Design the sequence.
């Protein structure tokens, strides 16, 4: 069974929140991956919904692209909506 | 002897102990897989099921203890009864052997357990209804898990098919006891405390046949069946199981942690 593929597990802990990556596990197919995830990651009442994705189907950004990808955003404070004066009548913004 | 004899005329207590001991003994067997599962994930699944069954056994034994007039605590019922006082069916005490045997044993039992607990939702006994309702959610998952493995292994490779078929065949002779009533079952059924095992037998056969067919496995032919567990006459396997399960309480009476 060592040739079982690896799956990434995402669990939603309560309604309204998004699924969050919790770890990975081995399983022969998606059905088994969901059941294994239930036993490995949701046995202490952690979740109400499980997503599984084959690890080989995930594509990640390259760590060496970090500067090009993310650094330019650091000095563009005008992209944050912090320059408006909120009228006092506006609640719950 | 620190144990008291069971009240032989108390059919309700006997019935509850049968339910309790099925769960307790299978739980102990499954616990033997802890750290030895074929995969980390399956190791977790088996021990999760073991813990579910342990919890169910505890609920049943609490009720059993009350029915006995609290002469013994649930822990005493679990750890201080000798083999002859256990009321589990023989199937549950059979050794794990390999994963196919463990799966076949679990599949036969889960199919039965699911049908019986569903029937017990209509028991005239409120406590039995409550414990059954709580257990049933877990047991539906157990059944899904064991059926899934019967199908995967049966409909897998030549080797997995051969080994699954052998386990299904070898354990078949221990299933009759689950489905055949004795005097206690008859009284329990007449008082609508528990199921009519004739009906459970029909439903069980249908359910088992459906999964085995899906798994491309042969349904064993009915034949001679082992009996005795429900009356306290067990296979030698139970003695070894109890020796391990009860050692601590026997060697250090009242030990706690």
Sequence:
């Amino acid at each position: 069974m060592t040739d079982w593929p690896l799956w990434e597990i995402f669990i939603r802990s309560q309604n309204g929140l998004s699924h969050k990556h919790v770890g990975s596990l081995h399983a022969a197919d998606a059905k088994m991956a969901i059941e294994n995830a239930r036993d490995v990651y949701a046995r202490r009442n952690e979740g109400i919904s499980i997503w599984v994705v084959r690890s080989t189907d995930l594509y990640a950004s390259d760590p060496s692209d970090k500067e090009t990808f993310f650094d330019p955003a650091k000095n563009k404070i005008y992209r944050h909506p912090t320059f408006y004066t909120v009228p006092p009548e506006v609640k719950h913004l | 002897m620190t144990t008291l004899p069971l009240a032989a005329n108390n059919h309700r207590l006997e019935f509850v102990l049968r339910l309790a001991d099925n769960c307790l003994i299978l739980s102990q067997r499954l616990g033997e897989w802890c750290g030895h599962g074929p995969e980390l994930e399956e190791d977790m699944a088996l021990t999760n099921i073991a813990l579910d069954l342990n919890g169910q056994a505890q609920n049943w034994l609490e009720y059993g203890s009350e029915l006995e007039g609290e002469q013994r605590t649930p822990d005493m019922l679990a750890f201080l009864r000798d083999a002859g006082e256990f009321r589990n069916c023989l199937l549950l005490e059979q050794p794990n052997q390999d994963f196919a045997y463990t799966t076949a044993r679990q599949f036969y039992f889960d199919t039965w357990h699911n049908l019986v607990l569903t029937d017990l939702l209509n028991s005239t006994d409120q406590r039995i209804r409550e414990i059954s309702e709580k257990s049933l959610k877990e047991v539906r998952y157990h059944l899904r898990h064991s059926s899934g493995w019967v199908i995967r292994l049966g409909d897998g490779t030549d080797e997995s098919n051969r080994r699954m078929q052998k386990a299904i065949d070898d354990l078949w002779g221990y299933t009759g006891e689950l489905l055949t009533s004795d005097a206690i079952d008859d009284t329990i059924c007449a008082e609508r405390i528990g199921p009519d095992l004739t009906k459970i037998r029909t439903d069980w056969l249908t359910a088992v046949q459906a999964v085995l067919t899906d798994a491309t496995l042969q349904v064993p032919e009915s034949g001679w069946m082992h009996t005795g567990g429900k009356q306290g006459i067990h296979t030698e396997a139970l003695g070894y199981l109890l020796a391990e399960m009860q050692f601590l309480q026997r060697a250090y009476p009242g030990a706690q942690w």
About this structure: The interface with chain B takes residues 1, 4, 25-28, 31-32, 35-36, 38-40, 43 of chain A (CB under 8 Å).
